[in-house]
């Protein structure tokens, strides 16, 4: 089959924001005799043409449990046309259902919350993205022209939702008087985990498409991928945690030097040559946030001369899968919405799938017993109803994860985020069956254990 030479064009970022009209707000909530439209709309109106029946039908379908195996099953790039079409159709089978579930979740929020301009903006973004995918639901992608157009739609989707987390956080901050903090944490945990999967699905196909471009352009020799590359889309099948740790530690130490004038050191021990299959950008985010906590505590406690000790431990290979299933069941019993049961066969990887545990140990004085129970909450704060808006600086006394997510660009690694990345980091760690545990020795320091579940070893 001859591939088209049409390149993937850049698409403008669309962020539709249809704010509520004053007339609608009055007729919905203050009129003693609501108009018919008030009964029809229990959520913000939108100019996006998509019926409630379409949303309800898709949202009634169960979510596919995404695994790392799903993301590598189409093979190593460059992909031939049939494999590329298979990836596109697999992506199309998942995304509309996921978007519809998020739309329904937003509609289930109290009206005064979902009508907030920031949250309403996210709601309309989801409607827009679903409306761009619906035309493809009635057909199978079987031509390169359709695959290219579909990939452009995915690029638009990824760009549209690039700032979802900080925008949602700003909305919840502004609605703090009307929503329970526990409800905020529950919603954000669920939403962030769903968002991780949605972006991964879209970004994986985009990456497979782009890495297959040389196959579409046989005369473009400068784009031919390295045949020894360990990447399958966004997954590195030979990821070196030590390399990621050193890169993130260098970045965080530079931030510390800019803010505090000192540059803490670190030591990597254990098994630094360990490799496993994982998503590098996820590990980078988690490690960066954990190191921010450790470095900040070390500097502010006056222990800058004490190095942070980072130990990498590779789990031994085993055929026992029961522990993973038990861990997943235990999370479900505790109400944690993890999408990572290890039930699917790993292809093209061999079972078993050993994991990696990383311990970060600092001498930063530990975590106060008063603070420790709240470290996983997005809404732990001293903010009171008398305040117009929480402060945006760590020294204000109002700083919590929700503030940082809203003020520091969400998933960015800015100085404002020092010490406040645990909830989101845990969401990333738990997504594929891992987790984060914190052990504090108040007055001495902290040990943070990051466990990640890999895919195993690639087949030769």
UniProtKB/TrEMBL annotation:
The answer, when asked if Magnesium is one of the entry's keywords, is: no
In this chain the Histidine kinase domain maps to: 280-456
Which BP terms in the Gene Ontology apply to this protein?
regulation of glucose metabolic process
Per UniProt, subcellular location reads as: Mitochondrion matrix
Keywords in alphabetical order: ATP-binding, Kinase, Mitochondrion, Nucleotide-binding, Phosphoprotein, Transferase
Q: Which PROSITE patterns match?
A: HIS_KIN
Offer an example of a GO molecular function term for this protein: pyruvate dehydrogenase (acetyl-transferring) kinase activity
Q: Which InterPro entries match?
A: AK/P_DHK_N_sf (IPR036784), BCDHK/PDK_N (IPR018955), BCKD/PDK (IPR039028), HATPase_C_sf (IPR036890), HATPase_dom (IPR003594), His_kinase_dom (IPR005467)
Q: Does the keyword Magnesium apply?
A: no
Q: Where is this region: Disordered?
A: 26-46
Q: Which Pfam families match?
A: BCDHK_Adom3, HATPase_c
Question: What residues form the membrane-spanning segments?
Answer: none
- Chief subcellular location: mitochondrion
Q: What class of enzyme is it?
A: transferase
Q: Which GO terms describe its cellular component?
A: mitochondrial matrix
EC numbers listed for it are: 2.7.11.-
> What's this protein's family per the entry?
Belongs to the PDK/BCKDK protein kinase family.
**Which protein are we looking at?**
Protein-serine/threonine kinase
Tell me which species this is from. Glarea lozoyensis (strain ATCC 20868 / MF5171)
């Amino acid at each position: 089959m001859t591939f088209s030479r049409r390149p993937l064009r850049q698409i403008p970022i669309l962020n539709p924001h249809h704010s509520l009209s004053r007339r609608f707000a009055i007729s919905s909530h203050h009129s003693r005799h609501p108009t018919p439209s008030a009964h029809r709309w229990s959520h913000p109106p939108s100019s996006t043409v998509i019926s409630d029946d379409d949303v309800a039908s898709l949202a009634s379908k169960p979510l596919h449990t995404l695994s790392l195996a799903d993301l590598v099953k189409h093979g190593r790039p460059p992909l031939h046309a049939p494999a590329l079409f298979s990836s596109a159709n697999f992506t199309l089978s998942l995304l509309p259902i996921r978007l519809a579930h998020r739309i329904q979740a937003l509609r289930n929020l109290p009206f005064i919350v979902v009508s907030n301009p920031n949250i309403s903006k996210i709601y309309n973004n989801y409607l827009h993205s679903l409306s761009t995918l619906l035309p493809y639901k009635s057909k199978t992608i079987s031509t390169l022209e359709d695959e290219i157009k579909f990939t452009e739609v995915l690029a638009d989707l990824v760009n549209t939702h690039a700032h979802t987390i900080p925008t949602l956080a700003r909305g919840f901050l502004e609605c703090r008087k009307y929503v329970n903090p526990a409800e905020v944490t529950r919603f954000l945990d669920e939403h962030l985990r769903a968002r991780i999967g949605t972006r991964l699905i879209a970004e994986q196909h985009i990456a497979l498409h782009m890495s297959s471009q040389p196959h579409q352009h046989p005369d473009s020799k400068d784009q031919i991928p390295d045949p020894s590359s360990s990447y399958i889309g966004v997954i590195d099948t030979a990821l070196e945690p030590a390399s990621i740790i050193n890169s993130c530690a260098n970045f965080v130490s530079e931030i510390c030097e800019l803010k505090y004038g000192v540059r803490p050191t670190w030591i990597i021990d254990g098994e630094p040559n360990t490799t496993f299959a994982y998503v590098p950008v996820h590990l980078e985010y988690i490690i960066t946030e954990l190191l921010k906590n450790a470095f900040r505590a070390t500097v502010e406690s006056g222990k800058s001369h004490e190095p942070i000790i980072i130990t990498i431990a590779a789990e031994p290979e085993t055929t026992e899968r029961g522990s993973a299933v038990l861990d997943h069941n235990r999370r479900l019993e505790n109400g944690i919405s993890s999408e990572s049961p290890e039930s699917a066969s790993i292809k093209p990887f061999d079972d078993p799938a050993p994991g990696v545990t990383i311990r970060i140990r600092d001498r930063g004085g530990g975590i106060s017993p008063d603070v420790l129970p709240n470290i996983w909450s997005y809404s732990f704060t001293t903010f009171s109803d008398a305040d117009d808006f929480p402060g945006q600086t760590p020294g204000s006394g109002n700083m919590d994860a929700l503030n940082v997510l809203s003020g520091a660009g969400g998933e960015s690694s800015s100085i404002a985020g020092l010490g406040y990345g645990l909830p989101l980091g845990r969401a990333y760690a738990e997504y594929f069956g891992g987790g984060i545990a914190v052990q504090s020795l108040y007055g001495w320091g902290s040990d943070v254990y990051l466990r990640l579940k890999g895919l195993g070893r690639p087949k030769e």
